[in-house]
Amino acid sequence: MGVAPRAMTTTTTDLSVPTGFVLLNKPSPFLTMLGPVYAKGMGASMVMGFHVGHHHLNRRGILHGGVVASLADAALGYCLAEPGEGTGGALAMSTASLTVDFIASAGEGDWIEITPEGLRTGSKLAFAQALFHRGDRLIARASAVFAVLGGRI
User: Fold this and answer.
1) Helix (H) and strand (E) counts in the chain
2) What are the structural domains, with CATH classification, of the chain?
3) What span, in angstroms and rounded, lies between the C-alpha atoms of 16 and 116?
4) CA-closest candidate to residue 12, choices 126, 99, 107
5) Rounded CA gap, 117 and 6, in Å?
6) What angle do CA 39, 116, 83 make, to 5 degrees?
7) Residue 4: pLDDT above 60?
8) What are φ and ψ of residue 41, in 5° steps?
9) Rounded to 10 degrees, what is the CA torsion of 80, 104, 67, 11?
10) Contact 110/133 with Cβ under 8 angstroms?
11) How far is CA 132 from CA 7, 19, 84, 104, 139, in A?
12) Model confidence at 5, in pLDDT bands (50, 70, 90)?
């Protein structure tokens, strides 16, 4: 028994990318598949964004939670691992824990911005959180712990 998609009153047909966002530089093959994903800034000041595409939807016609979790993991990793100028490469890390709270939905065509924040990076663990917004509306919150592997990649 299928579930009928629900109507989304917030969906827009304007797929323009907000000022300051450019295609994410050197995304992983997985992010390329999920994309296009855009970014503004880098490292601790990075904000990521994307338009919800048809391939991001679940059976109910809304943004799939797995997409949110995947992009949270990526945004948090970029925020913590990406170096500032002249630091010699990204810090090697691996996700140890990822928690996502789903607060509201998003539909096809919606522009979603992901604002990550590094909370602390120690010698063994790093902590971060991210907020997902559709316009002024908070749709998800994520928090993660990363294992610091040492070295730079």
Assistant:
1) 2, 7
2) 26-83+90-152 (3.10.129.10)
3) 22
4) 107
5) 33
6) 70
7) no
8) 80, -175
9) -120
10) no
11) 21, 18, 24, 10, 6
12) very low
